[in-house]
Design goal:
Layout (H helix, E strand, L loop, with lengths): L24 E3 L7 E3 L5 E3 L5 H12 L2 E9 L2 E7 L6 E6 L12 E5 L2 H10 L8 E3 L4 E3 L8 E5 L5 E6 L5
Parallel strand pairs: 3-6, 7-11
Antiparallel strand pairs: 1-2, 4-5, 5-6, 8-9, 10-11
Length: about 170
């Protein structure tokens, strides 16, 4: 059975203070003084065929922290996981999405040092590509600097992830 929108979520983190326009709206510099709803991506469901195998891969292999492992019935189980420092979680489980296992591609994890992140994943037993960059036409070996250094890996079902090097943030 499919239960759309039924997830357990961790509280959102607010950075700084903002004045409330009215109700649930917030001022935004991109709206020229108008109010707009504040949107936060907090949970991405990942379709998997074996929940326990996926839970082990994401916690032991990738380093996600376990937030919730809740089984309401044989038809519904949700395992919510969050990377340290991330405001967005993933969920694997039974009865949470109808898409086939392995069908999610292009999930991106931004890190300050792609070589260090790759080495950590390798040390945890995750199969991951060498670091590469895009030269405008083709993928080339080695890093290409901030925003152009990548490594790729997949979970046991084939859901595809990208590590991308971004600038260090305080």
């Amino acid at each position: 059975m499919f239960y759309p929108g039924l997830f357990f979520q961790t509280p959102s983190l607010l950075y700084g203070t903002m004045a409330v326009c009215s109700g649930q709206t917030m001022p935004d510099h991109r709206t020229e003084g108008r109010c707009t709803v504040e949107w936060k991506l907090e949970l991405v469901p990942i379709p998997v065929s074996d929940v326990d195998r996926a839970k082990a891969f994401y916690t032991e292999g990738v380093g996600f922290e376990l937030d919730v492992d809740h089984r309401a019935s044989d038809e519904f189980r949700v395992v919510q996981l969050t990377l340290p420092g991330s405001a967005c979680s993933i969920a694997v489980g039974t009865g949470i999405v109808q898409t086939p296992p392995g069908s999610v591609q292009g999930l991106q994890l931004v890190v300050a040092d792609v070589e260090a992140a790759r080495a950590e994943l390798l040390g945890r037993g995750v199969e991951i590509s060498a670091v590469q960059h895009f030269d405008g036409r083709d993928w080339r070996p080695g890093g290409g600097g901030e925003w152009n250094s990548f490594a790729f890996f997949s979970d046991p079902d084939g859901n595809g992830w990208t590590l991308q090097q971004g600038p260090a943030r305080d």
